[in-house]
Design brief:
Length: 335
């Protein structure tokens, strides 16, 4: 099957085409989706929902056209990210997807963006039943598969991990996105103590962010604050990921989300997994950050499993939780 995927939950206006043969599913490297992305870059501050939606409105038609031009034959279904994400952006993507499905006269498939972050890691790794750490901009949670759904084993009690980092960099006056700048500055930093907040498999960033801003305001070199932010946040994520592996008995971990592009986070997760004899997989950067490739890949599997989203039920959902999704596409696979 050949599926068009459309992504637009926040900053990435992205379209992709993925060809999938369920009888002979090739590895991701051998059969990558074609992806075209147009990124929204705020002139100042963080992501502004109205500006992001304006960008989405302008960019989606262009990226879709590029993806359709690259498609090697007719499209069988249109998959789109229904949520979670910014309502004004999701509405544009939903409208575009419905219109395209109508014009091409093909079914619509509604994809949960966070499940797509997980599934691209499962697809790329070939793992059967991994625990997934989703470390993205607006989210941070651990997912494990149980009884037909991806269950939320643990999650942030306040902001997403990338948003927490971006709030600090806004305070410092750096442009969005802040994550790569923190990673660069951290290379020359030394450790200062910051609050470490883990409760079972849940965690919190708000106190840590206030303390980091206070350190900076008190004159602590920004490199030291960046280094300590990374060490503290990523140690928290590694701890909860390890607890999730231990309590579920899983021996595979996949990483998802834009913060996964950080080499220090990957290094800490890799060494934690090595110490307990678990396998670790992080997709390439282009599949970690928001991208329509992951929507097309999961959309194709859902389509093959018989998923069809009637237009009248296709409203977007800015708070769409991963554990609301019935996992129909893993039938016959190990659980
Ligand atoms: P979500 O997937 O939850 O909707 P999102 O749409 O904001 O989140 P992602 O593309 O998953 O998007 O992640 C973007 C986040 O990744 C931003 O907060 C950015 O600062 C962060 N990020 C990007 N590169 C790095 C890096 N090298 N180190 C740390 N964080 C990074």
């Amino acid at each position: 099957v050949r599926v068009l995927g459309i992504e637009g939950t926040a900053w990435a206006a992205s379209a992709a085409v993925f060809e999938y043969d369920p009888a002979d599913p090739a590895p991701l490297d051998a059969n990558p989706p074609f992806i075209e992305t147009d990124a929204y870059q705020p002139e100042s501050g963080g992501i502004h929902p109205r500006e992001a939606a304006e960008h989405m409105g302008e960019a989606i038609p262009k990226v879709v056209e590029a993806a359709l031009d690259a498609a090697d034959g007719p499209i069988d279904a249109v998959a789109f990210s229904r949520g979670p994400g910014l309502g004004p952006c999701l509405r544009i993507v939903g409208t575009a997807a419905r219109a395209l499905a109508g014009t091409l006269d093909v079914p619509l498939v509604g994809v949960n963006h966070m499940v797509a972050h997980l599934e691209i890691g499962r697809h790329g790794s070939g793992f059967d039943a991994p625990v997934c750490l989703n470390a993205s901009g607006a989210n941070a949670h651990l997912l494990g598969f149980h009884d037909g759904r991806y269950r939320v084993l643990g999650e942030t009690m306040d902001t997403g991990v990338g948003n927490a980092i971006d709030k600090f960099t806004r305070h410092v006056g750096w442009s969005h996105p802040g994550g790569p700048k923190v990673e660069e500055a951290a290379a020359d930093g030394e450790y200062v103590d910051l609050p470490y907040v883990v409760k079972g498999m849940d965690f919190s960033f708000s106190g840590l962010m206030s303390a980091a801003k206070d350190e900076y305001d008190a004159g602590t070199p920004v490199e030291d604050v960046c280094f300590s932010l990374q060490e503290t946040i990523f140690a928290m994520l590694a701890e909860v990921a390890e607890r999730a592996l231990s309590l579920t008995g899983a021996d595979e971990l996949v990483l998802g989300g834009g913060v996964g592009q950080n080499a220090r986070l990957r290094e800490m997760l890799e060494s934690m997994c090595a110490e307990r004899g678990a396998e670790f997989y992080a997709p390439d950067a282009r599949y970690l950050r928001d991208n329509a490739g992951m929507i097309a890949v999961l959309g194709a599997k859902m389509f093959v499993a018989g998923e069809r989203l009637p237009i009248e039920d296709s409203a977007i959902d800015p708070n769409f939780r991963p554990d609301e999704v019935d996992v129909t596409w893993r039938t016959g696979e190990p659980t």
